[in-house]
Amino acid sequence: MQKTCDLFIPLLTNDPKLKYLSLFDNSFKYDEHSIYEGYLNLNIKRIKLIHFVGYFRTKGIHIFNVPIEYRDNKNINKAKGTKIAQKHANDNNFEVCFSEKQSVPLYWAYRIINDIQERVGGMVYIDKLDGHIWTIEEYEEYFYDYNNIL
User: Fold this and answer.
1) Is residue 140 part of a domain?
2) pTM of this prediction?
């Protein structure tokens, strides 16, 4: 089953190629005088948005293909995400530090610090919908299957 997704633009942009999104969602009306940031309020199948994500990334514009559940449902806030990450860190004998730069619309990201076991990976990702800790498999699947990033 194909997930319905939206595009999320974390930084201001107005690329004329955005107008082509209306081919897949006729409710999207590109305005050349507008600046776009955040969700574009699209409802397009995941696979159709991968091309746009790849195009914008080649131009240095970070953009994310996001299942609409993350847009349409209440997300846990950063404070709750931090609490979950800190509990996980305490249970596993390390500490965490919030990473704004590595957080995306689907999860809050925390860098592992003071890890006496020196585990590889160095990150804890807290899902914004339900607060579960992302596995490496979820992380890889999201970036490859939704954003064509290896």
Assistant:
1) no
2) 0.90
Separation CA 12–CA 30 (nearest Å): 14
CB 17 within 8 A of CB 116: no
Its domain, for residue 53, covers 4-72
Residue length of the chain: 150
**What are the distances in angstroms from CA 69 to CA 64, 84, 128?**
14, 21, 10
Q: Are residues 16 and 40 in the same domain?
A: yes
**Distance, CA of 54 to CA of 63 (rounded, Å):** 9
| Terminal C-alpha separation, the chain | 22
- Judge whether 122 lies within some domain: yes
Integer Cα distance of 49 and 40 in angstroms: 12
Q: Please write the tens of the pLDDT for every residue from 88-139.
A: 999 998 999 999 999 999 999 999 987 666 665 689 999 999 999 999 999 9
The beta strand positions in the chain, using DSSP E, are 4-13, 36-39, 44-45, 64-67, 95-98, 107-113, 123-127
Token pair 């992302």 is found at 134
Q: How many domains are contained in the chain?
A: 2
